[in-house]
Amino acid sequence: MNNTDKSGYIFDNVRLTESGDSVIIIDQTKLPNEEVYLELKSIDDFYHAIKTLQVRGAPAIGICAGFALAVEAKRLSLLPDLSESDFFGKLHKAKCYLDSARPTAVNLIHMSDRVEKAAFLCAGKGISEIAESCLRESRLIQSEDAEMCFKIAEYGLSLVKSGDGILTHCNAGPLATSCYGTGLGALFLGKELGYEFHVYSDEMRPLMQGARLTSYELHRAGIDVTVICDNMASMVMKQGKIDACFVGCDRVAANGDTANKVGTSGVAVLARHYGIPFYVFCPSSTIDFECSSGNDIVIEEREETEISGLYFKKPVVPNGVKCYNPAFDVTDNGLITAIITEKGICRLPYEKSLSNLFGK
Ligand code: MRU
């Protein structure tokens, strides 16, 4: 099965099947060496896929979680003799289980909330009608994400010019969303319009999303991309190769503090030192107005073995030595030049600019 379209980089990476009984994903842990597609049916399948990063990137996780609940609602609707209250109880249990798969990316909770709310709105109409409404809402989540990505790409493109060098960290491209991506969207759109960019992609230890996924997407689109080790970012900035940094995000607090893949805050500190603009690309689904600052954001901690051995033939850390593996860090709002959303570009003070734009 090949789900890429003719442009070669837009992946149908999370797709609800026509019947609404399952979801097809591209297994991102196998890229770039193999394009393997998986069919997810049970809540355990979805939990496992999200937890192990077979599907990853905040918006893609949210889309997948929305589909997961819709598939579960449909499965429950086919059980004989299930009361509506039992249906809602089981759906809620499934939602809480999914929400616990990855704690930092707020899109997961936002989208599972949306599908559960769509179910509640149909209470009393019968379980099949409720399940239909979950499917509708989950499809809407995906199409809205695609629209948001496109608008973010347009705003992002207004910040750069052809010939610019761009530094990226982790992966915020089509694989992490529904379409163009957020942090990479402007680069794909620019390419379509004839811009030439020179992208430096941090490899992104320990799970290598920059090396494996960002370079894969950009290269397929014919965009000039060079992978560097994470510790080389300062060097390329000092050499004058970087005009702007483009990163995605997993949760943006009301004051603009931003959680993204670990190492992002270091890139922001470096960018400030070298006077390079540091841009965060953020669909509204990733803003958490309930979090007043980055201090409230829960940071996911992952297995030590991801550091000590996952991408090496033999362990690179002596047996018995501890590893610390936080998956995300928080960039202070003061280091962020602008936050680019589907509704426009926000600048400091973010409490004001974000709430003005989103009416909170
Ligand atoms: O652990 P991951 O690979 O899910 O982390 C992904 C990131 O940090 C992305 O930059 C973020 O989710 C934005 S994706 C548009």
What's the short story on this structure?
39% of the residues lie in helices and 15% in strands. By secondary structure, it is an alpha/beta fold. The longest helix has 31 residues, at 127-157.
Overview of this protein structure:
It is built from eleven helices and 14 strands. It is α/β, with parallel strands linked by helices. The strands form three sheets. It has a seven-stranded mixed β-sheet, sandwiched between helices. The chain has a four-stranded mixed β-sheet with strand order 11-8-9-12, covered by helices on one side. A three-stranded antiparallel β-sheet has the order 1-2-3, with helices on one face. A hairpin with a 6-residue loop joins strand 1 and strand 2 (23-26). Helix 2 runs parallel beside helix 4 (106-121) and helix 3 (84-99) packs antiparallel against helix 4. The chain is globular. The relative contact order is 0.11. The mean pLDDT is 96. The structure holds 5-S-methyl-1-O-phosphono-5-thio-D-ribulose (MRU). 5-S-methyl-1-O-phosphono-5-thio-D-ribulose (MRU) binds at residues 53, 56-59, 105, 170, 172, 176-177, 181-182, 209, 248-250, 260-261, 327.
